[in-house]
Design a protein that fits this description.
By secondary structure, the protein is α/β, with parallel strands linked by helices. The protein is built from 23 helices and 19 strands.
């Protein structure tokens, strides 16, 4: 296993921590966690711990939102055919399902379209525009794509088709000529929150349309005499709430920051999933072995409000829902993912979810085979030991799994990685994944003269090039990585939030408040703690695929022991068994098993004292 760096965070002002701890009546560790997340006042903490739909920003602050709603109104008034267009991943398909499901209740002359990953590739395709033209579409609303679709926008205009782009990716130097471009990352967009998912942009379109239709906005504050407006506002909230499960799935799967507006949307979306899930999401969770509570359990535990046997969190959406929805677009057709999310009854949802679950099983086999082949290439050729980047191509690898393979190799070798295969148009198409210290999108910009297309962000990107440019690209990319990364950057880092003492710090109040930090995700990750001078209680074991299970207890105080699991840490079994003292960095989590929930340590790393 690759050695890791332990870094204890100290990027905060201790005076601010102490003042916040006093004003909130919490210990210094809780206050430290808040300050690390940019929360420094009582009011900010209140908003953090009590997310509310009232905290959402006015959608009309987004550049071009007024133009977009005006054009949609025109299309509905004239009964024009509308096409909701989206990318083939979770974010794109959930965005399409959300916007399509709302507007079809108003305008039945509506359709949706998802490009084929192999035949059309990412983004708005000429084939998709041809489909729109032949089916009489007058307005395309593109979601989670389109910000660089300059040629496609011009092509659509030739047929008299207007285009509204709702994207969240970085724009190019020149924006496409469209009716409206909704993207908070536009330099001229004043929208306060820049990190919405593609589905989040779709939600803001629906929110803006509903607000205009009802005549109130979520951000409005009404006086006591305006009860009818406050009632209308509550009606608006209820109508919007039903769509937030899809937004939560997109936020989880697209790895956007779960702070600010995303935190509000994710929190409410999880409430919807945990209390009244739509059939498509329930069906797919059942294939992930998450079952609804039985009638006997409901009667025996009336204090439990959850629909499922456990409360689902962002991590469950990441690992159980996201991969299955993605699998349809990777293996067959992402149309199936949209249809699943649109299902209104469990019978049809189960049939589609079973198909998609089978796609996911096939995807797992493909990515396992490709990953093993890639690792053999790297480990059997000494040149890869000295390189700071990994760039591989294999024309037999499935296009739908190259991103997953790239992620697996980053986990194994901690190097910026790009995995290519050959597409149907004889280009090499690849997925890029990076490490914390390296901006892979900026590196691709420096290689743009060798590329046919690229797009993404700092940590992940898609890229295509001609086969004859591959060797030149490999050489230049390696040079860029080498010049920007030091040797210590190539060692994975574990960022530790705070050092805690089992007996003094891990109290019922501490655990109760820590739970309120959820939903967890990027920029609000599950806190990682450090505890020192621990030993095992005497019965460690290796389970599954080299996972270490044990129970940690302080060496000196012999206070409460906590069960622990260290994934892929089985190599430490003998030293733990022999009673050697160790330090742990870990996450505190609730483990649900056989109807019981207990606190356990999810161990990220172990260091022995001798």
């Amino acid at each position: 296993m690759k050695e890791k760096r332990w870094l204890i965070r100290k990027d905060y002002d201790i005076e601010i921590v102490e003042k916040l701890a006093e004003s909130l009546g919490v210990d210094r560790i809780i206050a430290t966690l808040l300050v690390e997340r940019g929360i420094t006042s009582f009011e900010e903490a209140k908003h953090f711990f009590r997310p509310s739909l009232d905290q959402l920003h006015d959608p009309f602050l987004m550049k071009d939102m007024d133009r977009a709603i005006e054009r949609i109104n025109q299309a509905i008034r004239k009964k024009e055919r509308i096409l909701i267009y989206g990318d083939y991943d979770v974010d794109g398909t959930s965005a399409v399902a959300l916007v399509y499901s709302y507007f079809r209740t108003i305008n039945p002359n509506i359709d949706f379209y998802i490009p084929d990953r192999d035949a059309e590739g990412y983004g708005i395709s000429f084939q998709g525009i041809d489909y729109a033209h032949t089916t009489g579409v007058r307005l395309i609303i593109a979601l989670d794509c389109g910000i660089k679709a300059n040629e496609q926008a011009a092509y659509a205009s030739q047929f008299g088709i207007d285009l509204i782009v709702g994207d969240h990716h970085l724009p190019g130097d020149e924006l496409p000529n469209c009716t409206a471009i909704l993207d908070p990352k536009r330099e001229d967009c004043p929208y306060p929150f820049k990190e919405l998912s593609g589905c989040g942009i779709g939600f803001k379109i629906v929110e803006a349309y509903m607000e205009q239709k009802i005549g109130v906005r979520l951000c409005d504050v009404f006086g006591e005499h305006e009860r009818h407006k406050r009632k209308a506002q509550e009606t608006l909230k209820l109508k919007l709430l039903k769509y937030l499960d899809l937004v939560a799935v997109s936020i989880a799967s697209d790895i956007v920051p779960i702070m600010g507006e995303n935190r509000v949307l994710a929190a409410y979306g999880l409430k919807v999933i945990n209390t009244c899930p739509r059939p498509g999401i329930e069906a797919i969770l059942r294939f992930g072995h998450i079952e609804p509570r039985s009638e006997a359990d409901r009667q025996g535990h009336p204090e439990k409000e959850g629909y499922f046997c456990k409360d689902l969190n962002i991590s469950d959406l990441v690992f159980l829902v996201g991969p299955r929805i993605n699998a349809a677009g990777r293996i067959r057709s992402a149309f199936d993912s949209v249809r699943l999310m649109l299902c209104e009854d469990m019978e049809s949802a189960h049939v589609l979810a079973e198909e998609i679950n089978n796609y996911n099983s096939e995807r797992k086999d493909l990515d396992t085979q490709a990953t093993e082949t890639a690792k053999k290439i790297i480990e059997n050729d000494p040149k890869w030991q000295d390189r700071k980047a990994i760039v591989l191509v294999d024309e037999t690898w499935h296009k739908g799994v190259v991103g997953i393979v790239a992620s697996r190799l980053v986990e194994a070798y901690y190097k910026p990685t790009i995995i290519f295969t050959r597409s149907t148009d004889d280009l090499y198409v690849g997925s890029a994944r990076s490490i914390k210290e390296f901006d892979i999108h900026a590196a691709l910009e420096q290689c743009s003269d060798l590329l046919e297309h690229f797009g993404g962000h700092k940590c992940a990107a898609g890229v295509s090039l001609k086969p004859e440019n591959f060797d030149k690209f490999v050489q230049r990319f390696e040079e860029i990585v080498t010049s920007n990364l030091k040797s210590e950057d190539m060692v994975p880092e574990i960022e530790i939030d705070a050092e805690v003492d089992f007996a003094q710090n891990i109290t019922p109040k501490f655990l109760r408040i820590l739970k309120q930090f959820s939903p967890f995700g990027p920029e609000n990750n599950v806190p990682i703690f450090l505890s020192r001078h621990l030993v095992d209680t005497g019965f460690p074991r290796v389970v599954g695929s080299n996972h270490l299970k044990f129970a940690a207890i302080p060496l000196e105080s012999r206070s409460r022991a906590y069960p622990a699991i260290g994934f892929q840490l089985g190599e430490h079994y003998k030293r733990v068994k022999d009673g050697q003292p160790f330090d742990l960095c870990y996450m505190l989590e609730e483990n649900y098993w056989n109807g019981k929930t207990e606190i356990q340590l999810n161990v990220k790393d172990i260091r022995f004292e001798k």
